Amino acid sequence: MQKTEVPMACEGYPFILFSGFTTLISALLGFPLPTLLCLLLTGFVTYFFRDPARVLPETAGAIVCPADGKVIVVREVDDDRYLQQRALKISIFMNVFDVHVNRIPLAGTVERVVLSPGKFYAADKDKAVLHNESCAVTVTTPDQQRYTVVQIAGLIARRIVCRAEKGDQVAAGQRFGLIRFGSRVDLYLPLSARVLVSEGQKVTAGETVLGILRQEQSDPAEESIA
């Protein structure tokens, strides 16, 4: 399957049109240097809001990467904010040159969406998790396992876009939002997940398999009763 389509995120069109219009006006007024700068800005904004098609993995139970970027955290944590249990945490840092469209890691039903206002520390710092503006989407999978994907604003990012709503049925790899101009995505998974990535690894949204979510084993006593 060839990936030739490179659509744009709809949230980027106002920025592209504005910078393009500014470039045109500057050129018509005969200002060469401002025109060049505006042209470069238009090119960067267009590049930033690109939304290329991706080939989804076909592996059963695959945890699809929600963001382009670099893995900066892989560890077990006591998650008191989202799942309220011990969880596996994977954090992905997106710089301004990465695709910023975010995707759903696993199919399921959106249980809740929580937008938390906050500050704008550098997204690769630990304090960003606690203090930065964020949007957390918790999803329940068909076998009743829960996970949370958290969009976190960064030093430059000032706008989180999340299209997911409570009750939505979502598919693995489905686009659900983006973060403007540099940011981070944290993923909290049940301990039944087997992680396949490591810190420092470059990953691609919609294509990289972060791990495999094993189905929870049923109680043998219940099986014997059945």
Order of helices and strands: HHEEEEEHEEEEEEEEEH
Helix-residue proportion: 10-25%
Shape: elongated
Strand order of the largest sheet: 9-5-6-7-11-3-2-13
Structural class: alpha+beta
Strand count, sense and barrel status of the largest sheet are: 8 strands, antiparallel
Number of strands: 14
Query: How many distinct helices?
Result: 4
Q: Over the alpha carbons, how many angstroms does the gyration radius reach?
A: 20 Å
User: What would CATH call the class of the largest domain?
Assistant: Mainly Beta
The oligomeric status of these chains comes to single chain
- pLDDT < 50 stretches: 1-5, 218-226
CATH topology of the largest domain: Glucose Permease (Domain IIA)
List keywords for this structure.
alpha+beta; disordered N terminus; 35% strand; 226 residues; 8-stranded antiparallel sheet; elongated; 3-stranded antiparallel sheet; Glucose Permease (Domain IIA); 14 strands
